[in-house]
Amino acid sequence: MKGSLLYEGKAKKVYTILGEDNQLILEYKDEVTAFNGVKKDYLPGKGRLINLISSILFAYCNQQGIHTHFIDSLSDTEQIVEHTRMIPLEVVVRNKATGSIQKRLGLEEGVAFKEPIVQLYYKEDALNDPFINEGEAKMLTGCTSEELHYIQAEAKKVNKVLLPLFQRIGLQLIDFKLEFGRRHDRTIIVADELSPDTCRLWEAGSNRKLDKDVFRQEIGSLLESYEEILTRLEAGAHV
Question: Which residues is 94 bridged to in the sheet?
Fold first, then answer.
């Protein structure tokens, strides 16, 4: 079933499927990186956790009417997805202040925004994925104004769907990153992954961090944090 290796990134490998042009296999790796690959480690079992968490979250979004590339989970570390052409754009939705926006604007960590803030970043490792405006996004990605507005609206929909899901299992969705891809008919859907590698998740009440900041800040066991998220999702997602 698995064909040739199409692409390998920091966290996953992408394979073709023999005899199938419209689908791909994503295989999640047991590697963790931060600060654009400057900090890295090998954590056996991480790929399994990311794949299972991402599969649950994508399936939940699909059930809620959000179009994503996710089709099915194939194994503990693999999933079948729709073949899309990725748009070189990272869309970040922020519900509370932390990370770069906290530092850039001098905010207190954890301050809630009155409404979600959506930001665009150009996906280019050589430039450290710079923050860009809509005009720059149009130039760099080839998207029209209407497509960029659609992408940002879809990101807000994902946020609206995931916020109550995480609240139900005792977690706060602080912020998250989305990527989008084009189908063969040029329609745009949510792609890449949804996981604690791309979401900031804090425990409700205690504000204990359970996402990749555990690795960035060296404040605990990343695998234990991800295992806890998976356990909570399996008990409460009802997918």
Answer: 117, 175
**pTM value?**
0.95
Distances (CA, A) of 115 to 54, 149, 205: 25, 17, 21
**Which among 76, 68, 86 is positioned nearest to 29, based on CA atoms?**
76
Q: Mind listing the pLDDT tens digit of every residue in the chain (239 residues)?
A: 899 999 999 999 999 999 999 999 999 999 999 887 789 999 999 999 999 999 999 999 999 999 999 999 999 999 999 999 999 999 999 999 999 999 999 999 999 999 999 999 999 999 999 999 999 999 999 999 999 999 999 999 999 999 999 999 999 999 999 999 999 999 999 999 999 999 999 999 999 999 999 999 999 999 999 999 999 999 986 54
> What is the DSSP pairing of strand 85-86 with strand 31-34?
unpaired
Chain centre distance of CA 193: 4
- Topology of domain 2-82, CATH: Phosphorylase Kinase; domain 1 (3.30.200)
Of 204, 210, 155, 188, residue with least CA distance to 69 = 188
Assign domain 85-223 to a CATH class. alpha beta
Could you count the other beta carbons within 10 Å of the beta carbon of residue 187?
A: 12
Cα end-to-end distance, the chain, whole Å: 26
**Domain assignments of the chain as residue spans, ordered by start:** 2-82, 85-223
How far is Cα 15 from Cα 42, in angstroms, rounded to an integer?
21
